[in-house]
């Protein structure tokens, strides 16, 4: 007695072919690359937001210091594009970036005497740069 040969179905549903496996891997890799890109974009936006918060805090602190300074001791000057003596500061925010702060004090021709103060802070890194800049301005008069 001869054993009977088992016939397999020719319907093609017995398993994956090599082509199907390769297509599945390509689709999976494209998905992983897309998710990795989202993580990188999120990380860069988080860094810029941290730089923006640090710039805003430094500009606000400098503006508060200038407002607290006696009116008669303010000296007009400064340049937002250059580091003029006495009108700039560099602050390192731990774990974030170094912030450059510059300010100008302009005397206005008005009665009572008045100054126009502008404070400009921005991170020193390439990534934060102008996207994380903070600019504040105010008028300052002598208190009666």
- Total number of helical segments? 1
- Name the helicity range: 25-40%
Work out the radius of gyration. Answer: 32 Å
Order of helices and strands: HEEEE
SS-based structural class? alpha+beta
How is the main sheet built?
4 strands, antiparallel
- Unreliable stretches (pLDDT < 50, length at least 5) are none
Please indicate the percent range of residues in DSSP E strands (runs of 2 or more): 25-35%
Overall average residue pLDDT = 86
Assembly type of the shown chains? single chain
CA-CA gap between termini: 122 Å
Strand order of the largest sheet: 1-2-3-4
* Strands, count: 4
Coarse shape:
rod-shaped
The domain count comes to 1
Notes on the structure:
This protein is an alpha+beta fold and 144 residues long. It has one domain. The protein has one helix at 18-68; strands spanning 88-93, 97-108, 114-123, 134-141. Strands 1-2-3-4 form a 4-stranded antiparallel sheet, with helices on one face. The radius of gyration is 32 Å and the shape is rod-shaped.
């Amino acid at each position: 007695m001869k054993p009977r040969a088992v016939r397999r179905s020719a319907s093609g549903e017995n398993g994956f072919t090599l082509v199907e496996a390769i297509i599945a891997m390509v689709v999976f890799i494209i998905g992983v690359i897309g998710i990795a890109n989202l993580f990188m974009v999120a990380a860069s936006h988080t860094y810029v937001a941290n730089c923006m918060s640090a710039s805003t805090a430094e500009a606000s602190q400098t503006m508060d210091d200038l407002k607290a300074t006696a009116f008669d001791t303010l000296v007009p000057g400064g340049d937002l594009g250059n580091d003029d003596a006495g009108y700039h500061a560099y602050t390192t925010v731990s774990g974030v970036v170094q912030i450059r702060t510059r300010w100008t004090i302009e005397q206005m021709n008005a009665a009572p005497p008045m100054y126009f103060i502008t404070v400009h802070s921005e991170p020193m890194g390439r990534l934060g740069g102008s996207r994380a800049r903070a600019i504040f301005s105010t008028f300052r008069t002598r208190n009666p």
